[in-house]
Amino acid sequence: MKKIILACGAGVATSTVVAGKISELLDKNGYEGLYSIVQCEIAEAKSQCAGADLLIATTVAPEGIECPYVNGVPFLTGMGRASAERDILAALAG
């Protein structure tokens, strides 16, 4: 089971929007039922990354995280989304 941490400023609004888009991406690429998404506020991201496969954040990632990081802003703006999707799939495949 892949554990994905999805962080935004307060852990509610933007992370919820992005979570839906990430779920669609993963389901389309063979990960359906093989991952969990944990939403949190960015202040909790560092502690949540322990044992996680990936951090996706819609704000600046904290220093010292111990899991791979992908910028989640492209899932809000559309700019750079294809690249972010490739980065997510590569992180989970590795």
UniProtKB/TrEMBL annotation:
SUPFAM superfamilies: PTS system IIB component-like. Residues 2-94 form the PTS EIIB type-2 domain. InterPro entries: PTS_EIIB-like_sf (IPR036095), PTS_EIIB_2 (IPR013011), PTS_EIIB_2/3 (IPR003501). The keyword Transferase applies. The keyword Iron does not apply. Gene3D superfamilies: 3.40.50.2300. GO terms for molecular function: protein-N(PI)-phosphohistidine-sugar phosphotransferase activity. Keywords: Transferase. GO terms for biological process: phosphoenolpyruvate-dependent sugar phosphotransferase system. Pfam families: PTS_IIB (PF02302). It comes from the Bacteria. This is Phosphotransferase system lactose/cellobiose-specific IIB subunit. It comes from Coriobacterium glomerans (strain ATCC 49209 / DSM 20642 / JCM 10262 / PW2).
